[in-house]
Amino acid sequence: MPVYTCTYVQGSLTPDVKDELAAGITTIHSDMNHVPPDYVNVVLAEMPPENVHVGGRPGTPLLINGWARRGHPQDGTTRLALALAEAASRTSGIPREHVMVVILDSPARSAVEAGRVLPDPGHEAEWLAEGRAGA
Amino acid sequence: MPVYTCTYVQGSLTPDVKDELAAGITTIHSDMNHVPPDYVNVVLAEMPPENVHVGGRPGTPLLINGWARRGHPQDGTTRLALALAEAASRTSGIPREHVMVVILDSPARSAVEAGRVLPDPGHEAEWLAEGRAGA
Amino acid sequence: MPVYTCTYVQGSLTPDVKDELAAGITTIHSDMNHVPPDYVNVVLAEMPPENVHVGGRPGTPLLINGWARRGHPQDGTTRLALALAEAASRTSGIPREHVMVVILDSPARSAVEAGRVLPDPGHEAEWLAEGRAGA
Predict the structure, then answer these.
(1) Is the ipTM of this complex over 0.85?
(2) Count of domains observed in chain C
(3) Assuming Cys at both sites, which of A14, A110, A112, C17 could form a disulfide with B103, CB separation 3.0 to 4.6 Å?
């Protein structure tokens, strides 16, 4: 259900770290937002060094942009963003000063996955059961 | 007015399919949200296979992220997301289980195109007429 | 605190223009939204010509997508979008007809930078002072 995009400069993450970062984001989101891991999407968007600027100059941040269904309690979203930022810095070796996490949202009813409108937060179990019944 | 970004693994869409996908998204959005086709932007963001993860492992989804002006009725946005997902799966040959569509929004007054602040939904005709008068 | 992504066709901006565009966005956002320049992130996402469509056909727009903390007054966000669009067109030489700016938002409490939850608009000074005290 969620989609995370991690943007960073080419070469600042090794292949192993990329895999570990994607796996870590998946586990954290799955645990905290009650979504099976198979529904967590993570995209790693690598950029040439001259295409990432911080403060108007080339920089090497790790920018993590996530989308989740609207309606999760705000406290949980704050904890999710903190946990993602901490894990991303630890996994990548990029200092936490250069790691940014932003969670965007829109209504579950504005999103479709596997041909079906997504459920509001709290109604994941019914949605998943309907999917299995329909498969 | 809208911007759609389609993210997928390199090689999973042929050039013809890419064109057809962009054209299909354009037609559907134009018809359903009352925007002339020339104002629909579609970006195809191709990623190396190792940079797209689903469930913590490399995967081959088609992730479609759209932005539209806030204020369209929710039922219409839900129908739009369903129509886009159905057309994207049919055009791409990617099974609907692996196609995800998310529509984000923000106020029309937070967006500028052709040098002018965008109109709220329902006021497209006046905005377009003003543009022709000013050109 | 903000993240801007500029999407355009490869070759439509020279290296000098890319630097100038990133610097201009940084200065404008910093001045108008009361954020030190070092906290403004700008990503330049270059796409092959066949991967950017306008009106269902290949096109050469400059699409600028920004994220900012929710709670800035709407009038200020509108002025920000207008100023960014004007500067982007002037700097890039891309006609304003083909420049689009969209500002998205989510709660400051849904975002983490430098290991800390971002402050609501209007509380930047305390947040920055706390960071210096904690460093």
Answers:
(1) yes
(2) 1
(3) A110
